[in-house]
TrEMBL record:
<dbReference type="InterPro" id="IPR018708">
    <property type="entry name" value="DUF2225"/>
</dbReference>
<keyword id="KW-0802">TPR repeat</keyword>
<dbReference type="InterPro" id="IPR019734">
    <property type="entry name" value="TPR_rpt"/>
</dbReference>
<protein>
    <recommendedName>
        <fullName>DUF2225 domain-containing protein</fullName>
    </recommendedName>
</protein>
<feature type="repeat" description="TPR">
    <location>
        <begin position="168"/>
        <end position="201"/>
    </location>
</feature>
<dbReference type="Pfam" id="PF09986">
    <property type="entry name" value="DUF2225"/>
</dbReference>
<dbReference type="InterPro" id="IPR011990">
    <property type="entry name" value="TPR-like_helical_dom_sf"/>
</dbReference>
Length: 231
């Protein structure tokens, strides 16, 4: 029987120690469904739980995609603000959702300490919102708000592509976050920007999602006090 997880050896850029962390094998990632803000639900082990790497020696934590993206100033900030208070512990084994949330919160704290790019912090906040959604925890909305604010900042200040998102994809995501937070007027405006964007035809999936969510947001705007079933 194939193990769902495998171990990866990582070199910490802050303290230069080597540690192991777990990842879900690509062959074992079975998608069950997706939400309109790109949250993916998996059958079995959830790869989202393992996207944050945490150094057990110094406490530095970041998403895998950004783990090595730290300069000397950032390393010094981690040592002075995190490592001095850190109690050595490992998150390298199998994680449940509560452990995953702890890892993301550690990474979020690190991102604020090192003054990471707004888009990096937004990604962490969005994933925390997803994890709370999976638990049906009302704190989902709190982190959706944070994610929206940081994505808005990234949209105005950072150059595209941002992570894996081009401009039209981020505009769509900002619209969807507005919609989920009940800001229907703003959601409609952002979806309109997507469907009128010159490059919309090169992003047919995003264009379709924007049109679908535009109709939903417009309906919700007219009937704000009624619950509308989402597909």
């Amino acid at each position: 029987m194939v193990d769902v997880l495998y171990r990866k050896e990582v070199l910490c850029p802050v303290c230069s120690s080597t540690f192991e962390t777990s990842k879900v094998r690509l062959s074992q990632r079975k998608v069950e469904k997706r939400d309109e803000d790109f949250c993916i639900y998996y059958k079995g082990e959830n790869p989202i739980y393992y996207e944050v790497w945490v150094c057990p020696e110094c406490g530095y934590a970041a998403m895998e995609a950004y783990f090595q993206d730290i300069d000397e100033w950032g390393k010094d900030k981690v040592r002075k603000n995190i490592s001095v208070k850190w109690r050595k512990r490992s998150y390298g084994g199998q994680r449940g959702i509560d452990e995953a949330i702890n890892c993301y919160k550690l990474a979020l704290y690190c991102s604020r300490v090192i003054e990471a790019k707004a888009s990096t912090t937004a990604s962490l906040c969005l994933r925390l919102a997803w994890l709370y959604r999976m638990q049906q925890d009302p704190r989902e909305k709190e982190f959706l708000k944070h994610a929206l604010n940081f994505y808005m900042e990234a949209f105005s200040k950072e150059r595209f592509p941002i992570g894996k998102m081009n401009e039209i994809t981020m505009m769509y995501l900002i619209g969807e976050l507005h919609r989920r937070l009940g800001n229907y007027e703003e959601a409609v405006k952002w979806f309109n920007r997507v469907v009128s964007h010159p490059s919309r035809h090169s992003n047919p999936a995003i264009e379709k999602m924007a049109r679908d969510q535009w109709h939903l947001a417009a309906q919700q705007r007219k009937q704000p006090d009624e619950e509308i079933v989402e597909g």
